[in-house]
Amino acid sequence: MSIPLEHDYIGLSEAPSMERASDKISSSSSSTISSESEKSTALNLRETELRLGLPGSESPERKPQLGVSLFGKDLEDKTNGYSLGSLKGFVSGAKRGFSDAIDGSGKWVFSVNGGSEVDLGKGAVLFSPRGGNGVKPLGGLDNNSAQKSCMPGPAMKDVAAPSSPKPVQEKKPQASAANEHASAPAAKAQVVGWPPIRSFRKNTMASSAKNNEDAEGKSGLGCLYVKVSMDGAPYLRKVDLKIYCNYMELSSALEKMFSCFTIGQCGSHGLPGRDGLTESHLMDLLHGSEYVLTYEDKDGDWMLVGDVPWEMFTESCKRLRIMKGSEAIGLAPRAMEKCKNRN
Amino acid sequence: MDSKRKMDSPESNVLTRSSPFPDEVLERVLGLVKSHKDRSSVSLVCKDWYNAERWSRTHVFIGNCYSVSPEIVARRFPNIRSVTLKGKPRFSDFNLVPLNWGADIHAWLVVFASKYPLLEELRLKRMTVTDESLEFLATTFTNFKALSLLSCDGFSTDGLAAIATHCKNMTELDIQENGIDDLGGGWLSCFPENFTSLEVLNFANLSSDVSFDALEKLVSRCRSLKFLKVNKNITLEQLQRLLECAPQLTELGTGSFHQELTTRQYAELESAFNNCKNLNTLSGLWEATPLYLPVLYPACTNLTFLNLSDAALQSGELAKLLAYCPNLQRLWVLDTVEDKGLEAVGSSCPLLEELRVFPADPYEQDVVHGVTEMGFVAVSYGCPRLHYVLYFCRQMTNAAVATIVKNCPDFTHFRLCVMNPGEPDYLTNEPMDEAFGAVVKNCTKLQRLAVSGLLTDLTFEYIGKYAKNLETLSVAFAGSSDWGMQCVLSGCSKLRKLEIRDCPFGNEALLSGLEKYESMRSLWMSACNVTMNACRRLAKQMPRLNVEVMKDEESDDSQADKVYVYRSVAGPRRDAPPFVLTL
Asked: Is A194 on the interface with B (CB under 8 A)?
């Protein structure tokens, strides 16, 4: 199962961290959370369900009375029971939360990055952690003692302690019972307009961050998608490296994928006794049609596929490129040589 | 005209008898004074000089559009050709100001239409500009030449189309970073076929495709084109063709720097850049990868400003590129270059004066990369001329900052943003007071300061005591009590702009500045501890200040959530929306 990875500045929908976070929560020493979450789960299952209602049609309890981040409303926050149990709930909850905001009912605003359906016009992030009780917002602060000693009195107890996926931090919010703005495990409470970055830049960086993500492969989700381009092909494909165990599987998958663009001819090079062999096999497959399979690694260098152990390859591969042999001048001869040696 | 002027200044008869200069000469001489600060000083000397100054002035800069009315401006300065206007408070860039707050240019345009029909230039920052206004501008001012919009909102590409269609003498169209409704790139095709005067074209932040054909033709026929900044949709191949048409460019913003090129295309691109020997500014470079960066190398010899804030480069790529930029004075990068990249900056750019490091992932708390204090320190060792810095990081130490300002004592602009609010010195766990103390003690020329991290009142004591040239101060999540703000207000004699958010400063602090605010452009305080009553008191005691409050929805009646105080000769705003309470 792959949870769609949406990008938003809260890191709301970064499912992996959320999954990890929920794991951590359940195993954390604080039992209050789990029981709370169960309670809130029981009470608020409806709210966390993926619903298709129109924005603004949610129950009023969804309103952020404490003006704290969506995640800040932790599991302890009874007024707004978002349970971590339902990831989808979070994601959709986030969206609805945003809708709340545009309806003017909520105080917070979410930014979802450029291109997504929720566009604030300025791609603004966030929500003000200010409480309705007129408390001074100190959102995004780490809940550690060094800070507390320097914080002004009235604000202290209502500091919206930012959450962090690190398990250590979760315990603190539990400790400060008075702190209703306890941190939620999945993401820190974001503050309106902080860090002070202009909207246009956020959108730009969102897209470049996205591109980097694409390039690096969406990892951690249980899948590792990388782009595969083939010289001369009109469009690119994406493959999930995690579903293959070795180079052979990858190569045959690629061969199938790009068969319409000529590689198919090599299909019958089948290979008993060649499981252990890596690059030569691949090169044989592709060699017949003058193609070389290369990949871009984390450092941005283009490498020949097959040199390193499979696991190392999947970890460092950012994208694949099926290169015409004539282009891969530096690479191809070596490949051919190796093939010859093996043979 | 002469008699009119003499009527304006009855004492002039007495004065000019002893004055060696006839009015015309005085005007001629004063006409050469360009800086608006100098002109303000000149106008205060005596009535003669006041008059000579106002008649000879062609450019007016208005830092706060509500501080004065267009009628007052027109009355004082009859011969204006160029206007620069700034509108909303700076924190509106970070969404702290609701939409429809105001700062609409239209009322100004209407007055200008009758008083300055020959208006040539309009530069707006943080103003609301509608398509109607743009059309009005384009059709009313026949001599209009230069339009620059930065961080404005309210218009769409239709407005740009009106400008392109009607402004026959356009030399500059600079559309930067605006909240624009991008309805399509057709506006570019609206420049008439016989239109050749363009010198500056910047549409880098527009997202739709323009017709490349139209763009290429435009660039070809505008032989004086010096600045060209295209948007992300322009490919490398297209860029190469544009460069072939315009090798005379001095400022270039590329489009996307990533495309699968053939060897021949690559060579052509290299050759195109090789011909651009006049480039002093380079930006754009979206998605730049190590494969294509090398084509830039030959064009970098004379670069003084390199803006890589849209290109997520790694340290190695940056280092290689910088080796070709020996004359660099200004550098903007993303923090993907990390400390190692900044070390390369320190070693390759001895002439560097300005560095801005932006976070690639500002909202991702778990990020382990980005830059740290080490990178900043490395730059300071290698770049002693550094005087402008904007630095986003996740950790900093007092010791590092002390070292930095020891190496670079000439800072005029020091903007440090430790992204986690209230973050202490990560090594000692102490507040960052000593860091900013070092800054203000060492950097006597400091004009602009932005503080961050865990800060107590001590920081503000230091600022008030040492920052005697400080004009702009930005504070967020800092301070311990009213005392901090009071120190700043009483100590910083040249303070003009003070913007504060999420600090424990309250009424006492606000009111301690009673006398001060009239000498400042503006004060912004949001999410502090100021009450409505205190604001009312301020408004009552200082009638020449506009005290405006915006309340958050859920706060109680007595809290003044967002306070904006500014001096004005135009009285309270007449166009304030309902959520802005003028006290």
From this structure: yes
Mean pLDDT, rounded, for A178-192: 48
Q: What pLDDT is stored for residue B26 in this prediction?
A: 85
Q: Could you tell me if B94 lies within 8 Å of chain A, comparing CB atoms?
A: yes
Q: B552 touching A, CB under 8 A?
A: yes
Whether A32 has a pLDDT exceeding 60, the answer reads: no
Interchain CB distance below 8 Å, A104 and B177:
no
Select the more confidently predicted residue: A115 or B387.
B387
Classify residue B377 as exposed, middle or buried by CB count within 10 Å of its CB (0-12, 13-18, 19+): buried
- Residue A126 near residue A56, CB atoms below 8 Å: no
The string over A1-12, giving b where at least 16 C-beta atoms fall within 10 Å of a residue's C-beta and e elsewhere, is: eebeebbbbbbb
Alpha helices in A125-166 (DSSP H): 145-150, 153-156
Q: Per the CB < 8 Å rule, is B362 touching A195?
A: yes
Instruction: Give the three-class secondary structure for B340.
Output: helix
What pLDDT was estimated at residue B85? 97
Taking contacts as CB-CB distances below 8 angstroms, the residues of chain A near B233 are none
Inter-chain Cβ pairs, chain A and chain B, closer than 8 A = 169
Torsion sign over Cα A317, A323, A327, A331: positive
Looking at per-residue confidence, does A99 or B2 come out higher?
Answer: B2
Least confident of A283-292, B18-27, B387-396, B475-484: A283-292
Q: Which of residues 242-281 of B touch A (CB under 8 A)?
A: 260, 263
Which tokens belong to A67? Answer: 């003006």
Q: Between chains, do B417 and A162 touch, taking CB under 8 Å as contact? A: no
SS (H, E, C) B421-486: CCCCCCCCCCCCHHHHHHHHHHCCCCCEEECCCCCCHHHHHHHHHHCCCCCEEEEECCCCCHHHHH
Question: To which residue do tokens 């054909």 refer?
Answer: B213
Out of A93-107, B82-96, B278-292, B498-512, pick the least confident.
Answer: A93-107
Q: Which helix (H) or strand (E) covers residue A185, if one does?
A: none
Length of chain A: 343
User: What gap in Å lies between CA B83 and CA B285, rounded to an integer?
Assistant: 32
Nearest Cα neighbor of A160 from A94, A85, A74 is A74
pTM, 2 dp: 0.67
Contact B527 A136 (CB under 8 A): yes
User: Nearest C-alpha of chain B: how many angstroms from A215?
Assistant: 11
Average pLDDT for residues B99-115, to the nearest whole number?
95
Chain B residue at shortest CA distance from A154: B504
DSSP state of B555: S
If phi over 0 gives left and psi between -120 and 50 gives alpha, with beta otherwise, what is residue B139?
alpha
Question: A9: which chain B residues are within 8 Å (Cβ-Cβ)?
Answer: 362-363
* Structure tokens given for A120: 């604030």
Residue appearing with tokens 């930005």: B474
Pairwise CB contact (< 8 Å): A140 & B420: yes
Chain B within 8 Å of A122 (Cβ-Cβ)?
yes
For residue A252, the model assigns a pLDDT of 83
